[in-house]
Amino acid sequence: MKRGLALICFLSLLTAALTGMCGCALRQGVPPPAPQKTAEPSPSSSPARPPSPSPTLVPYVDAEWYIERNNTLRDMMAKNGEYSGTKEIDRAIERMYIDPDKPMVALTFDDGPKPGVTDEILDILEEYNVRATFFIIGIRLQKPAELAIVKRAISLGCEIGNHTWTHDRLTRQTLGQKRFAIRETNKIVFDATGYQMRFVRPPGGYYDPDVCRVAKEEGMAVAKWAQSGNVMERDPKLIAQNVQKQIVNGKELEDGDIILLHDTKPYMVDAVKIIIPELLEQGYQLVTVWELINCSEAGFVPGEVYHHQ
Q: Which residues are catalytic?
């Protein structure tokens, strides 16, 4: 009897020990779920804000002139460029974003277009995704090659400016001759491209009240310059040096300056290869004259004379 009771007690103890060991193994292999945390009440009773939309590729400038610029670019690029469609054009315009609060200058080229020079300068501008303003001589556009260059410049977002019909000095002309020199140049560009020019640059920079009068009649302003790269220089390195600091008077380049260059000689191509990366490295945005002036406090005013922003 005693042996039977002892056997029963031994079996009971053995079963309990085995059960405890199995239980520990189970808890180690599959831990119990952690208790859920109670959400803390929001300090504000206002409803949760919806998630912000995904940012666009570039910031948006809320200004009438900028909207006008983009609409004009869209039309001109479609008419004069070789884009596959509106999506490609819109992507190109997004890459032309301007930050009005950052430094900017405007490169300008006079006396073209010149095949073998202007088109190679356009190649460089396109490579760096920057823009410039080309003050063209109207009579040149009677040749197909020169006209094709202007169309390409427009399609890349560059600005075309009026450098008169034959590059004669306007201050030596009558009011009627001034009107012809400016209006005929406007007409040949508009008829071929649909592009409306906004600036006239008098040859040699010589102007008088009648030049401003005609410009205002045409909804245009007069664009001169604050910094000159190559009126007398031929060496590409000296031209680039002149852009940074004038050899003749020591004037240094400043934010908002309009820079005078010429696109009629091959050495200018080599100079531009130096100038553009230097300016970009210094933090300048390279924009058109119209963009530059519209980023100023006063904005664009027809009939005014501009040397810089």
A: 110, 262
